[in-house]
Amino acid sequence: MVRDQKFPQSRGLIVGNYCHDVLIRDGVVVAETLGGAASFISAVLDGLTLRYKLASKVGRDFAYSTHHDPIVVPGSRTTMFHAYFDSEIDGDGHQDRVLKRARACDPIWPSDLPESRFDFGMAVGVGGEILPETLEKMLDLCDTVSVDIQALIRSFDAIDGTVKLVDLKESGFFHLLPRIGFLKASGEETSSLDIEEVRKLCCVVVTNGKHGCTVYWKAGEVQIGPFPTNQIDPTGAGDSFLGGFVAGLVQGLPVPDAALLGNLFGSLAVGHIGVPKFDLRLLQRVKDEVQRRKMQCISFPERKDDELNLMKLPGFEQFHASLSAAKILPTSFPVQECQWDLSISPPTAADQPKLLTSCVFEETIQTIDSKP
Predict the structure, then answer these.
(1) Domain named Carbohydrate kinase PfkB: which ranges (predicted)?
(2) Percent with pLDDT over 70 in the chain
(3) All structural domains of the chain with their residue ranges
(4) What pLDDT, on the 0 to 100 scale, is given for residue 307?
(5) How many CB atoms lie within 10 A of CB 106?
(6) Is residue 69 annotated as part of the catalytic site, yes or no?
(7) Which of 119, 239, 306, 369 is catalytic?
(8) Class of 11-328 per CATH?
């Protein structure tokens, strides 16, 4: 049996606070769980055995045990969100939700980041904890940085903490976009940016719930299909999407294939309340399919062209079908562990979106969609 190994070249940096989430449906508290984008992303990356460091702050009241210890801030309390849901679902699968930040821990300062080089970084704040200077430091430390737009555009009502959105140009982060590799946004969050303008500065990935996601870059776009799922709790689906997407890039998949992997993990996340615990046999089957797809993509020498890395290569639909089968077919047979080969992807051209040089769901605000 070959055991998964941790490869130094896959090391990443995840920046965003852990949270306490309280889910309230029709006025009744239905769950109190570990929250924060970092917790959902950690579940994906840990399940796929990828190495990374985490910069996250909590207070002394932090109530959960995690695989990656946060920074405990004396005299501060852990960020807490209250999510108010309405059980009624409209024809497009949306549920009404109002999200409120009940309290906030300290921000993550540039000095809180480790002084090291990283192959990939993920800026995934949820409560306003990532500052422009912190993101700028990440861009200095990491070869490629993926950013969840919610870390940039959320604002909070001074009285009751209701989450609102500001225009990206007014966020204080806009000048950093040309240095960002991938910017992820939900369909609702696109109201805060001009996609036609931003896609000229960095690659934009927009998740659209049951419709999958769309990848936009300077010269084109591609639609990536979803995975049907039974939604129980949509919280963290976009975070899980981003974790799967970046994991795919780390493994050397082309961008559309990585987005497809993101859709898979987003669909898995909505089947759980809180941070999901993925079935180990399912994870192994996903690893096997990713390894097969990677080897298939290596056979295309044209991938040295970064533009091709952004397009669907032959075999994409088969990869989609294989992941669908891995998700729904019985997994009671013995599992052979496989080793993921984290090879290096070609460098990118200056005028193309920045891909990982080492082959690198958001939570909607007023409404919730069952993410891809």
Answers:
(1) 204-275
(2) 80
(3) 11-328
(4) 65
(5) 17
(6) no
(7) 239
(8) alpha beta
